[in-house]
Amino acid sequence: MTVDHAEIYAPTFGPQQFSNHFPMASFALKKLGADEELIDRFNKDNLPRLDLNVRSDNSLVITKDNFDLNLGKAKGYLGYLKYFQDKGCQGKELPRIDDLAKGVSASAFHALIRLGYGLDANDASEIAAGLAYMADTLLIVIPEENRSAVVSKVGAGDLGKEIVRKRLAGELEVLSSKATISGRMTVTAQDNERQNIISSAFNASDLSLDQVAKISLQVFLHTNNFTALHAVTASHAARLVLPYVGDQETFIRELFAGIITAVLTIPGEDFRADAFGQEDLLSQEVLSKQGRASTDSHDIKFVYSCLEEYREYGEKLYLAAAELRLNGWGRV
After folding, report:
1. Are 292 and 38 in contact (CB under 8 A)?
2. Residues 6+ apart with CB under 8 A from 130
3. Quick one: which of 10, 33, 149, 256 could link to 51 by a disulfide (CB 3.0–4.6 Å)?
4. What is the pTM (predicted TM-score) of this model?
């Protein structure tokens, strides 16, 4: 991972302010076994597309006194970056991570993913960038009054299956919006009917990170959808971040509520009754080779995350998910 990347390049780029995936994809490419020639070509193809950080004398300075005041306002990234750099972001603690948990859906999970990859790479600059991006784009999908102290009788697994069933039946159709994933999540969370489902997710019983990861994986295998892809990579990133979180239960609940919000933005026509699966799964070696041959940052990251989750959980469906992303519903 490029050590000074966060100092030079902005966390978003282009007119639509897409998230900068370069540092995560570059790291994943190396972990998939790419040689220096391939990495150099990836750098040359992708770095020129990115926007540079723009610093000025009027840049917002973030301190402990105005930290909370500027959360989620998308105007203080460089201030938050400096704040976290000064705090030091290596070791046994992640500064303010419990305070940021309520907005873990920030930028449609891209901030969480960048933070997780930074931890994986043991890169203090990228860890600070992930925390700063999360603070600056904090996305709260569930109002405080819906965070019940009483755990619901609805199980997380049952809730996930019910949402897939309803989408297949044409229910809970996506609300109209031309916004990015993050914008669509905001619109969805503001709808009363869908907020009830999101609140049920937050308050679900039998909730654990591996349960959240399993539901994210199943949704992807039923859809091969771009948003569902981010739910899988977010679950991987959350596993890397979780050891640094004080209130781990609340963090997982916030994550699950965010992922269910994201799932509710996936078009109904993307859902298939039969989840993707192959009896003769491609090997880790073949998937790694195909992943590093891709020029799509999302492919590279997704394959790496799937392989890491497979190694963690031993669930072969992660290999199927990686293949689905790379080759589509029919094997090439």
Report:
1. yes
2. 111, 112, 113, 114, 115, 116, 117, 118
3. 10
4. 0.95
Buried-state track 157-177, b at ≥16 Cβ within 10 A, e below 16: bebbebbbebbeeeebebeee
Cα dihedral angle (240, 244, 248, 250), rounded to 10 degrees?
Answer: -100
Angle value at C-alpha 18, between 12 and 24, nearest 5 degrees: 70
Nearest of 280, 159, 140 to residue 218 by alpha carbon: 159
How many helices (H) and strands (E) would you count in the chain? Answer: 16, 2
End-to-end CA distance of the chain: 32
- Tokens 């600056």 identify what position? 136
Q: Cα dihedral angle (127, 100, 303, 273), rounded to 10 degrees?
A: 180
For the chain, the C-alpha Rg in angstroms (whole number) is: 19
| 3 state DSSP class of 88 | coil
For residue 67, with 0-12 CB atoms within 10 Å meaning exposed, 13-18 middle and 19 or more buried, which class applies?
middle
Distance of alpha carbon 95 from alpha carbon 84, whole angstroms: 7
At 270, is the secondary structure helix, strand, or coil?
A: helix
Per residue in 120-179, pLDDT tens? 999 999 999 999 999 999 999 999 888 765 667 789 999 999 999 999 999 999 998 888
Contact at 8 Å (CB) between 130 and 116?
yes
Closest CA to 190 of 134, 142, 254: 142
Contact (Cβ atoms closer than 8 angstroms) between residue 220 and residue 321: yes
Q: Contact 131/244 with Cβ under 8 angstroms?
A: no
